[in-house]
Amino acid sequence: MEATIKDVAKYAGVGVGTVSRVINNEKAVGEKTRQKVLEAIEALNYSRNNMAFQFRKNETRIIALLVPVINHPFFAKLAYYVEDEATRFGYSVILVSSQQNVDKEAAIIKKIAHREVDGAVFVTHYMHEEESLKGCPIVSIDRNFGENIPYVTSDNYDATKNAIKYMIEGGAKKVGFLGSKPLVESEVSERARAYVDAMQEYGMPLRMVNEVMQHGEEAAVVSDFIKQYSDVDGVFVSGYTLSQVFYDEMTALGKRIPDDVEIVSYDGIFRQWGAINMTSVEQPIEEMARQVVRLLVKKIHGEETPARTVLKTKFVLGATTK
Amino acid sequence: MEATIKDVAKYAGVGVGTVSRVINNEKAVGEKTRQKVLEAIEALNYSRNNMAFQFRKNETRIIALLVPVINHPFFAKLAYYVEDEATRFGYSVILVSSQQNVDKEAAIIKKIAHREVDGAVFVTHYMHEEESLKGCPIVSIDRNFGENIPYVTSDNYDATKNAIKYMIEGGAKKVGFLGSKPLVESEVSERARAYVDAMQEYGMPLRMVNEVMQHGEEAAVVSDFIKQYSDVDGVFVSGYTLSQVFYDEMTALGKRIPDDVEIVSYDGIFRQWGAINMTSVEQPIEEMARQVVRLLVKKIHGEETPARTVLKTKFVLGATTK
DNA sequence: CTGAAAGCGCTTACAG
DNA sequence: CTGAAAGCGCTTACAG
User: Fold this and answer.
1) Under CATH, what is the fold of the domain B1-48?
2) Sequence ranges of the domains in chain A
3) pTM, 2 dp
4) Which of A1, A100, A235, B289 has the smallest number of Cβ neighbours within 10 A?
5) What is the pLDDT of residues A171-191, one digit of tens each?
């Protein structure tokens, strides 16, 4: 049987309150008493029962990370850094892959509302209006779930515009945009907006597919795009999976890349996964993860947080542009 | 303020014990009483305080998943299915990427020993001898951490041997093996053993690099292999990352694959990550994950578990063999 | 079938 | 500075 605070108190000949104060490093304890207690703790190999502690303090020291899928380079990397940063702040991370299942998401929401976690990072697809959620600290990435949910994002608009300019200045005349429309209000939409604006500025017609898409429907969307715009010579692809599928499909059709068609993608670059060496807008995933955790910790502690944090991306040249 | 069991009892005009019995679905409650309580729960929008419940029952309903890295196709996929299966059994999953940091692993071990989780799935690199761990339910994948830690694995030996035979029967004369030696006793070592046996059977000399390797040292190991065995015409590569790096390196050297060199890898196939379409031994990751969770749940409940569960792999033909 | 009570291991006013 | 006591929200023998 594990030793309890009571055992320690008895052994040291003091009250349990005193032991508690020593454990929690409160200063108001006499040096001699402290020593006695410390010795007792040592002798009994005592360590605080976490469940009792949490129950008493009404905090779990756990945060939840909700992602649509975990087996995806972006989310996996994000998860790694979220976990790392959370650990620094003394929090554990519960991982939830909603797999774009609205019911599963709802179940988690309930957990959060029931205070099984202290807070959550939402990087999901659906909107949840759980009234019980109001009091729970939640932060997000890219998604704008409302004014109470601060989020971290990257400079989607500028980065996309620059990437498109790069292709056009390099000679591309028929530039397309391939993306999928987010289900919730999201900064990701800025990419499409940037494309539309750029086309207008250059006086070029739109070649764009940007519909709502389920995970796994990439192939259909890609072939839809290719059917409509077989004449493109430069394409901006929004998102990792789409970019990989698009590249494969174009290659299969005999297109030479970048000679016939240039490709730039958002998040296209995950070399360590064996991905294609693609010219890409690279998001600062580590920094996004760390920032979002810090936001959450602040929210948990009831501190003020900025509603929107924008981080800079990097334009990385790969083998898919001239 | 959230309603407590006390509020419900008062509202329903019964004792708290009765409310508890209703909540926990014990049969020994009169139908009329049950109805009254149910109504009270409804009216007060009561839901059980999980922290109190856990504290009282001395269980967290959380399991930990320890992986070396989460941003890796194998572990990410594993994590997804572990989480999914755990959810079915009512457990949440705390994700820990030890990043091959022995201190971080040790910190987690301590958590587990302190019962911050009910059990753990260890898929790590180091051996931990924490005496306090003895009582804690732990299971593993591939690793053999000792007789108290059951594990799930795949048919490494047979699968490797078959793959090598496939290359040889297809015409390969100089077959190599590229892998990394596990730091703990692991079924992964069976792959090297199968290769050695196969070479002996066919009377072929060994062309083998199989040293202990840190994550990130893949490139060095690969070039080490290539320097020594530039004449190979078929290579079995153990592990996803190594196989990707090897493929890239060979291609960069102007080797045509599979015409000059055939490659078969263990875990080489993660098309959804944009990986090369490689002939590969495919592990049943989903099934491994589900089995390992079921093992763990059994251990948590104190049930008997088989020490070793072996699942069948699939040989998948890709574009890296003739 | 049901209620009153003890107790899980802590923290935290409250006195002194 | 320190101890005795109350209480966090539950579950679970124990009587009846």
Assistant:
1) 434 Repressor (Amino-terminal Domain) (1.10.260)
2) 1-48, 156-284
3) 0.88
4) A1
5) 999 999 999 998 888 999 999
